[in-house]
User: What shape does this take?
Amino acid sequence: MIEQLSEGFFEIFQDGTFQKMDPSRLENVDQDESLGKYSSALGIDPLLIRFNGKIILLDPGLGWGLDHKSSYQNTSSVVTNLDIFEIRPEEVDLVILSHLHYDHIAGCTYVDNNFKTIATFPNARYIVHKDEWIHALNQAGSKNDKKGATYNLDEFYKLVAENRVDFFDQDFYSPVSGITVMKTGGHSPGHTIVKIREETGISYFMGDLVPTEYHLNHYAMKQIDWDPVQSKKAKKWILTMASEQNATIFFYHSLFRKSGLISQNKKNQFLLMEPRKK
Ligand SMILES: [Zn+2]
Assistant: This one.
């Protein structure tokens, strides 16, 4: 069973910082003093999979409101999201990270009342592609001229030091039967997406390869993606395959349509339809 979680709507500024955003601002973007000029709006939507007795999270978000004395504690976070499904953080078995940009991994940890960095999911293994880790290490501290994409590994180092992280180096890796992590590269050198094969059909979590519905037929990531050519190739490959499989795809950053069945029309445009009934 797949459930899409949500931390809500955020405004991302040119320096890579995030701020929670009132979604009603999307109705008046033309008059907005910031949106579309100095910032963009995006959703942060982790995925919860309950599968073969395992509880798996894909990209646990910004961890908004998780830190001790955070001023955002009355907001939805990955932990309050799980609570809706009566899942405690200790019960999560596996956290799969599409890549290591801050907005996809910050929820892996929080800061407690002793200012210590703690793993949000204390019994989980965290998995990420080895190429992503090497790239992130090389990028951390060096000036990055890519917009939007930032690495901040300070807290993630702690998870690595505590031996909670598994790095894999295959192009296709199956940590649990029925779930395959597939390397796409492009957005970042070790970027991956996740394929989930259930009895009811196939689903894909697209990470930042296709962050929103808009990106299905528009390539607007040139200044953001590490390797735009590889991104375009991987996107075409995955979306064509997903269309042929009548698969459901899930977006991480969408504002409106967050998932749907994918198909391709005669003009080779990708279309998104209502999600499959459960
Ligand atoms: Zn990213």
Notes: Helices lie at 78-84, 102-105, 130-139, 154-161, 228-244.
